[in-house]
Every structure is written in C-alpha cells, then in structure tokens.
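---------- Forwarded message ----------

FYI, see the G2E3 ligase record below. Original note from H. follows.
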Amino acid sequence: CVLCGRTDDCPEKYGEKRTYVEYNLTVHCYCLLMSSGIWQRGEEDEGVDGFLITDIRKEVKRAAKLKCNICKKKGASIGCVAPKCKRSYHFPCGLQRECIFQFMEDFRSYCWEHRPVQEFTDQEPRGASQCTICLDLVEHLPVYTVLKSPCCKNAWFHRECLQCQALSAGIFFFRCTVCNNKEKFQKEMLRMGIHIPERDASWELEENAYQDLLHCYQHCDVKRSSFFCLLLNTQVFHFSKWEIKRCQYCGSRGTHLACSSMKSWEQNWECMECRSIFAKSGKYRKRKKHALATSEKTNGTTCLLEEPPSKSPRQSSGSPRSFLLQSPKIMCQSLSPCSHLELPASNRVTMTLSPVMSNRNWSLRHKYLRQQRREVCNILKELKAQVKTKTTRLNINAENIWSSALKGFRQRIFSPTNTIEVDFSNCKNRSKTNTSASKHHFFQLLMLHLQNSPLFEGSCGKNLSLNFQAVKENLYFEAGKMIAVSLVHGGPSPGFFSKTLFNCLVYGPENVKPVLEDVADVDVAQTIKMIKYANNLPSLQSTLQDCCEFLTAAGCLRPVTALCDKKMLVNDLLIYHVIKRITLPLESFRQGLKTLGVLEKMQMHPDVFSSILCHKPERLSAETLCDLFTIHSSSDVNKVEGADFWMGFLQEVESGESVVTLEDILLFVTGSCYIPSIGFDPKPTIKFLHIKYPIGNRLLNCLELPITKTYQQFKNIMELTIRSTLRVERE
C-alpha cells in the first residue's frame, strides 16, 4: 500500500486492497478513506471510488514528510483531529495503538489520548456477561475492546464481534442483537469507530441463497407400511393415491394419500409437530382418540400416522455421556446415606449390606476420603502462592451476609490475590476481634448462605437452579468466584455439590448423564417418573398426551410406538431439565470458579476435589484433633503424661462427658470451628508449660497447656477457661 507501506491483504481490518497496474498504484481502501489531506473530488467511477489519481499521489508526497508517532517510520497520512494534537500515524499502526476511526461524515480520526469513550457510571453492574454475538463472556470495563449498547442497559459486546457483525449485516441489517434498535445503535457504533458498509447483507447477496424455498416438499414421512411407499417415496404421481399431501400448517412434512388413509385431495392433513401446537383444541383431542381406537382394533399395530424421529440429533446409548457411568472415579457409592459424610441423593446405594460389610466399606471409604482431602490441601497450598501480602478489607454485616459480601467482592479495589481481612460492622469492639477468626467466620456464614440460596436447588446434593434475575445480575459468576476464593483463602469446603453438577464443571455438560434424583421440582420429577414407570404402551401414550405442553417446552415431543422408546425420552427430558435448561448459569458459574485457577485444578484432579465439593466436611473427632496438633515441650516437662491428659480429655469431649465440644476447643485455639480444606497456617501446635490456665494463641495456632498433678484438675481448668473465653467473645 502506497500510504501505509504494508503488503497485508486483510479486508476486515484494512478494507479492500486494490492494485491499479496502469497507474502503478496499490492502496488499502481504509488507508485512503482516513487520510487527512485528500477528498473525493471526482465521480464514483473516477479514479479510486472518486479519489483522483493525482490527488492520491499528492497525498503520498505529503505523508512522506510526516513521521508516524507509533512505528517512527515516514508516510503517516492520518492525523488526530483533536485541537492542538499533532500526532500522525499509519492506519494499521493506529488500529494497533487503539485509535478511533469514524467511518462517517468527514471520516475523522482520534489518537489514543483523545479518542471518544462511552459513559461508564458507578452504578453500572460490575463483573461479566455474555456477548450476544459470540456467546463468550465479556468484562464490564471501560476499555477499547469492549462496547456497551446505547439502547440496552445490560448488553455488552466485544469490539471485534461487532465489527464482524457490521461487515456481514451491512447498513440495512446491522442493529442491536438484544432489542433490535437500529438508529440509536448504529449512531453510537459509528461514533466508537465501527465501520458499517453501505451495502446489503452478505446473505442477501449470495446467489441462489433461497433457491431451496422454491421447491415443494415431496416426501412421505409416515412410517412406511408397504413396499410401494418405499418405492415411490422419491417420485411424484399427481392425481393418484400416491400423491404427496403436505401439512396444511407448515408445509415441511408430507404423506401419501394412501399411507394416511385419506379419501380425497381436499381432505386436510397436519403433521405431529403442528398438532402439538394445537394440543388444546377439541379437534386435536378427537383425532387422537380416534387414532388410538383404530390402533386397539388392529391388536396394537402401529398407527400409520406415526411421525419419524425428531430432526434434532440425539446421542446414542454409546455416546460419550455413558463413559462417566462406567468410570470407577464416579461409581464410588458405598457410603451409608445416614452418615455425616453424606453423598448426594443421586449417588446413594439402595441395596442392603450386611453390618460387617457396611462397616468395612465405611471404614475404607472414610480412609479414602481422608487421603483425598490431604491431597486437596497440598493443591490449594500451591494456589495460595498467588496470594500477596497486600490486604483488602471487607466490611461485613453478619445479619446481611450476602449483600455485604457481594458489595465487597465487587468493589474496584478487591483482588482475589490480596490477603483478605474481615471486619464485622455489627461487632461492638473491633480492636479485640481476631482477624483470622473473623475471616473463618465470614467464609463459614457465606458458604452456608450459598448452600441455601435460590442459586441452587435440591435437598442434599444440589444442582444449579434457573433464576433469571440472578442471571441478569451475574450472581452465578459471583457465587463461583466466592467459592474459589474461600477454598484458597482458608474457608470451609462447600460440600453440597451434586455429582451431576461436579461432573458438568469438570468433564463438560455434554459428557454427563443426569438421574431422576437430580430433578428438584416435585411436579417435573413426578411427570418423568410416570413416563419412566409406565408398564404398557396405552398408559405411556396417555401420559404423554396429558403432559404434551411439558414435552413441547423441553423439545421432546415425539411419537412413541413402543414401550422401549420411553428410556430415550426420559433420558432426553433429564438432560433438558437438569443441564440444557441451565446452560447460561452453568457457564457463568464455571467462569467464576476459574478465579485463582481453581477450576483448572478441579479438572486436573477431579477425584480429590470431589471429596470436598460433593461430600460434607468430616466431623471432628478426638483422633482428628490429636493428629492435627503437634506436641512440643521443654526438657523439664513430662511430655508423655501431658499428652495422656490431653488425649483423655479429647476422648471424654467426643463421648459427651464434658461441657465443651471439640469445635469449642478448635475455636479456642485457631479462631475457626472447622478445619479448612487448605489446612491451618501455621500448623497447630501444643506446648506444655508451667502456667495456671491454658492459652490459645490464634496468631500462631498454638495451644499452651498447664502442667497439673491429676487429670481431673486438667479437665476442670480446660473447661473453665474455654467456656469463659468463648462466652465473652459471643457477648
């Protein structure tokens, strides 16, 4: 190009590259349009789109004296129109430096410092939403690569997506993809540098693009009951019983007159899809009854009006979804449903085991989960290496935990890589509150709120719900982000994910097969159950007729001619209700979990993360606390006797023979009543010292214990101190 000096041929970026051999001239269309010292002085058919060749050569000479402020080379033909700004640049350099080129009126250009920007108020929602063109997430930020719609409050786009859409749609069809506004939308996009070509849409210019619409449908879609139907299906026989009669409503389905027992051409015929739309009409019900009666008279033979399977592709029983059910990683289902390490309802074992086998399986499973949680601890510690010493303080109201947490996470200064400190605004004496204890308490309240929030549904093992208001406010993204931050910053494990939700996050929703227990809606579950357990074809067809609207909404309305068809139907209904229906919430939730690299680690280590996301945290036991603390003592202290007193005290507390609990002991020492998935930092220790009362040093996670002559003295002092300390804190 004589103006920018580049050989690139990229019409989307630089416009059409044209070469005029007779003038020894090559130029990019956009380089020519945006050049500051040239105007269209000729007619459209003169020179290059009205730019005279002599004028182009003069512009090249003028630009040869100007140095580009970006690449520092000569030939910068474009200048910023802002007053007193003397910056010049090539068109490709300007694109690279994020300059704005307005393809309207005088074809003005603005440098990176003076370019127009969109208004971005403090009330604008933070976070991210879907770009309605590419369907990927777009951050709500006032940056060059992101544009917001002037006519829709919550519509955000990638600049590249809008430019591609504009080039394809042209000036007649380029409009807001959400509200369809054209005038206001185009005006704003032109101001922000989107080029909208003055031509028809690309799909309108395609030759014979709508040729298929001129062909009449000539195919019989009724189940073929004779050799002649099969033989004559691709041939046209007018004025005979083998003539094709098309659906009177859609015209995209057909039947031979003979195959549907139609006596004359004047008789109307409707396909099954169109009948479903008029399901409530009396005419449709009457037809159905007649069809069933005919079927009964022929000893259960298939009705001739049966339609072929749906056009939409369905995965077969050998699809990738089925491999998950056979994977040993997902079939660990030996837990008792009454245990505190409770599995999601969808994964409970229904067969009865002998007490010996049950106890042995429980012990093995318990040991397995412990091992997995130790591995999670190490993985989360790797992720915590990203956390810096710089702090972010969150002001939290315990009575309104969700709103205050959301406000804190959405503030501009919040960063997941900063150390989090928590202040409870309803705490009377902030100076005496322990930072670590406040943070542990905050994450515990937050996870409890999320578990019972409208974002999730289900009793024990929860799936994502479909909450349109939450989608609009981007709350699923925030929930995923909060869970990821909680895991890395020492919060409790959620423990309420269903196996189906976890598998969707790790393996992708297309590889997951949900079960009936995943359906939280009682009415929907009952409908699917009726279909699943129908024991004969008439009862199945009657059930399908009663729930016609539900099947239509799910995209699963289809003819059923055999009892075995219900298996695929139930499977498709479950996939729709549990997975497809929540595609947007699931994707938003996945994006939130990517915070600090948590989702990536989940996908790399699905087994170990399942132990903390799908199973409730292990209840504290004397053995757990004994293993948690490392005992240190000076040389003049009887370490063995002190350890015996400590272990004996833990066992009495576990058995309920004490006024304190194991959670009270852990809270007294660490400020947390649970063991975080990432573990404690520093590791909890015990020291036996010549002191009167026990001391819980929460900064060091150190428990200093007194030396006593008898066990009873040790127990009394421990109970008195722990109860008094915690009571004062609660007050």
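H. also flagged this: Residues 17-110 form a domain with the Herpes Virus-1 fold (CATH 3.30.40.10).
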